[in-house]
Amino acid sequence: MAAKKHPVVLRYAGMDPSDISGYQAHRYRKYGDLGHIDRDKPKPRLLIGTETWAEEALAEIKLIKMETFAAELTDLDRRNRRKDLKKRRIEGPRDPWRASRHGPLREVLLTANKDWFEVTEDSAELFNTAREKQLEERAVAWLKANFGDDVIHARADTDEQAYHIHAVIMPRATVHKHGVECSVLQPSIHPLIKDYEAAQDSVGTWFSEIGLTRGETRKQAIREALNNGKAPPEKRRHVRPAEP
What is the pLDDT of residues 14-72, one digit of tens each? Predict the structure, then answer.
């Protein structure tokens, strides 16, 4: 019988800077749904970034806000827009990203079904870490290759039902406004954030070397369901990797 094929799991979740503290609290197992945590297993392990990545990210965002605000005030003063200058001074700095319900950051989840991790060369050896190492090496390389320095953090969770990796993307870009180049956060700057199906294609190819396949093509599944008079598949949600 042919070996069962397991898809690589890639999920994105929108993230606001105000969510970082909650993310960190769950990382240290101090907050959130902890009922699925196995206290006897090793705690989450840092893969990318420093232990102070959260503080560094928030400080960088604050600096961007202040630099853009200073440039705006300078531009208004240069153009002798006194009324607008007074108004903006009262209002204060604005967020350096386009408002949306998703926020300017992205949390990434990379994993596979727990059954894939439990398949070993030695059937007597359960929960072999060899596949965890394989997935980890490929995941870190994929993140760095596609997001570069915008991957400000990644960690490996080893204390849940299935090994998985969380990462945080801070999508930096520049735009010309107020007479200068200003830094902004713009998720669409990254093609694999802008196009979900392209991201699935990418990980499907990248992880094929360790025996994982691409996940279901969602757009195709929707079209087929509608053509057959069936309800389309539910929208993907950010879930724990042990869930189906």
Answer: 999 999 999 888 776 665 555 566 565 667 899 999 999 999 999 999 999 999 999 99
Q: Which residues contact 108 (CB under 8 A, 6 or more apart)?
A: 10, 11, 12, 143, 154, 165, 166, 167, 168, 169
Angstrom distance (rounded) from CA 38 to CA 48: 23
The DSSP 8-state label assigned to residue 43 in this structure reads P
Q: What is the CATH number that goes with domain 6-216?
A: 3.30.930.30
DSSP track, 165-199: EEEEE--EEEEEETTEEEEEE-GGGSHHHH-HHHH
Give the containing element (helix H, strand E) for 205: helix 196-206
Q: Where are the alpha helices (DSSP H) in 9-166?
A: 20-27, 53-78, 82-91, 114-118, 130-147
Find all residues with CB under 8 Å of 180, minimum gap 6, and list them: 71, 75
Q: Mean pLDDT over all residues of the chain?
A: 85
| pLDDT (0 to 100) of residue 33 | 59
106 bridge partner residues: 14, 169
Q: Is the dihedral of CA 101, 197, 206, 43 positive or negative?
A: positive
**Every domain of the chain and the residues it spans:** 6-216
- Measured at the alpha carbon of residue 134, what is the angle toward residues 128 and 140, in degrees to the nearest 5? 135
Name the residue among 69, 75, 71 with its Cα closest to residue 89. 69
The pair phi, psi for residue 125, each rounded to 5°, is -105, 105
Angstrom distance (rounded) from CA 126 to CA 121: 10
- State phi, psi for 7 to the nearest 5 degrees: -80, 150
